Amino acid sequence: MFAAIAGAHGQIARRLTRLLVAGGDEVVGLIRNPDHVGDVEADGARAIVLDLESANAEEVADAIQGTDAVVFAAGAGPGSGEVRKDTVDRAAAVLLADAAQAAGVRRYVLVSSYGVDAMRDGATPDGMDPVFVAYLRAKLAAEEELLGRALGGAFELAVLRPGGLTDEPGAGTVSLERSLPRGQVSRDDVAAVVAALLRAPALLPAEEDPVLELMAGEEPVEAAVTRSLTPAPAA
């Protein structure tokens, strides 16, 4: 498999790159900062410096040409304001979708966030930091845009909503469901789930709901992903 990772210098993305490369897969990593090229190459990926806030779809399509799948693991990051939550967490994810369609890439995995459902219908939870509200709204908008495209047959889609992220060593076991109580999960295990989604023979059709919430749990990663991608029995 040949995968492109947007935000390849992020903590989950770097773990994912190393997992994929160790398994014999090829990775191209899209990064904004040229200072990060060495790290991404050390992880085993081919690094391409491309700012998704200023690039156009044609430039991104050229960068991901020939890949089997794309992963959006980019983010505006801590310290960024409400504007960049939109330009990165929403607009850059949509730009990657534009590029994937132009390049004929057939699988898209979006790393989203637990809690986005609280933003539906313009809701603003009491006491929540406005920047975090902007982040969740941007993630929800990206999910909805990509789901619409997947329903239209543009690509296979998986949306992963991890809980609170930790740097604990991966357990290799998770809880992966359509809906879960709030919890935490290690970045190692998030990367392992994304790798398993990329390597799966097929994702569920978009109409069967491609959104998966992810927390620490007791089910081995491969078994959890396989079960989650098994179509529901006909009524």
Automatic annotation (TrEMBL):
Membrane-crossing residue ranges in chain numbering: none
Source domain of life: Bacteria
All residue ranges annotated as the NAD(P)-binding domain in the record: 7-201
Signal peptide bounds: none
InterPro entries in the record: NAD(P)-bd_dom (IPR016040), NAD(P)-bd_dom_sf (IPR036291)
One matching Pfam family: NAD_binding_10
PANTHER family: FLAVIN REDUCTASE-RELATED, UPF0659 PROTEIN YMR090W
Protein known as: Putative NAD(P)-binding protein
Record organism: Quadrisphaera granulorum
